Description:
There is one protein chain. By secondary structure, the protein is α+β, with helices and mostly antiparallel strands. It is about 15% helix and about 30% strand. The strands form 2 sheets. The chain has a 4-stranded mixed beta sheet, covered by helices on one side. The protein has a two-stranded antiparallel sheet with strand order 3-4. It has helices spanning about 20-30, 65-70, and strands spanning about 5-10, 30-40, 50, 60, 75-85, 95-100. It has 2 helices and 6 strands.
Amino acid sequence: VLDNSYDCVLCLDVVNYFEDYKLILKESIRASKKTIIVSFFKRWGNGNYKERNDKTGLYEHFIDLEDFFGSLPDLNVRPVYAEGEKRGHGGPRFIVLQKLETNNFKLEQK
């Protein structure tokens, strides 16, 4: 997939399956022109992960909420919407991210 190929990239219940979820985010951001929607099927946790017992090589990652939001500036995205604290998630069920364009985006200073 080429850079900036899609108006919106949807990561539907994917990031919790990987040891390093930031690789999935980086790839989604690269492929997106502007918007990335990320959903989480596991509750937020302390960053621990464990390999699944089904021999798929996938993980169950309990992503740390503060670490996730803290990593967004380095990925050149910002959250624009979050919703859905359900099932004891301890945080949002899905988050909409927007790419920051350095040439046409200005942060409001207060």
